[in-house]
Specification:
The chain is an alpha/beta fold. It contains eleven helices and nine strands.
Length: 440
Amino acid sequence: MGEIFERAVPSKPLEWTGERLTTATAGQVEIEHLHRYFLARNLCRGLDILDVAAGEGYGTALLAQVARSATGVELSAEAVAHAAAAYHAANLRYLQGDARSLPMDDASVDVVVSFETIEHFYEHDQFLAEVRRVLRPGGRFIVSSPERDVYSPSGSDANPYHARELSRAEFSTLLNRSFANVHLLGQRPILGSLLLSDDESTKQMLTFEKRGKQQFECSNGLPRPIYFIAIASDQPVSDVPNSCYIETAEIGAVLAAADGVPALHALVNAAETARLAAETARLAAENERSAARNEIALCIAQANEQAESYRQQLVVAGQASQDHADRARIAIAEAAAACAQRDIARIAARRAAASSEGRWQNELNMLQQRADEAQRRSQELEERVAELEHRADEWQRRYFQLRGRLEAILRRSGILRVSRLVPARVRQFVRERLLRGPRL
């Protein structure tokens, strides 16, 4: 009979976020993590153990069942506090710390365990240097990491918590730079059957995998492992067994669920059809909106060109009207000056007549002539002013005619019809840009 051991479970699990496994979740991810810790537990009996990235602490507690001492190091202060409160043993403790700067003395442990940690940061060599520092001579490093080419194939979504994933070759090369011996194990969750020989001399292992509805593949060893677990040491590594994890209680439920797969596929297909229809409708609506925006932009551009032309004409007309008005004001000023001279001449004539009517009669006549000439010129200037004011009125009438034509063009071009699709601020800008005119 094999060894029976129990996994301790806290009364209140740490919340599952997807970054680290907790007892709040189950299924395939739980099987993967437990299998790694069960193997490590078998290799750590009577040794001083360091578990790096201990998470909720369940794995360190499993190792403490057989180890001389077990220390779990975790970056999250919340996880460390939860682990210290949930798991208790005389040889068990939890510390907050970074894998790249371990809070441990030099040569203080026999085994460093670190599962699914190295892919969460870039500083791999720094981490390996810290592992070598805390390991005693001949100590072991038990580490796992996903196989990038299988775990994250091209076109798949990236794991948001991973910073630098490694392929099998990169993982092996990294460990061989720091340790003389590296023993590599592949891991892949399965549903199936095992045929194992009682003869320990039998080393070959065949794997049969269903690859389609009626297709199967036969391989030597385990094809396409998702994860690799490495046992690295400067001493020979020859006592690492192959192992399997059997979750018997779940097989019936999985097979029962498989009976509903056709119906599930039908639902998935229906959902995909609906999604494609919705996407098609969305694209059609987007095309219509784009066409409307293009039509509006074209109409606005045409209207802007016509409005600019009329605005130039209005500017020219307004300038001409301004010039005539300036000339009229100058003429009025000249007429006023002539009238002032006439009045002065009349006063002088009256004074001269009062003192010597006869003596100054000729001069009075001359002054009278000048006054009459000034009166005539003043009348001409007043007529000229009236003519200029009439022309100014004519230019103003032409301005309002041009403005009315512009408004008619805007109505015919359809801008007023589509203006409901244009924001109010844009309509205001167009109205001010197209309909403004000089003040007369």
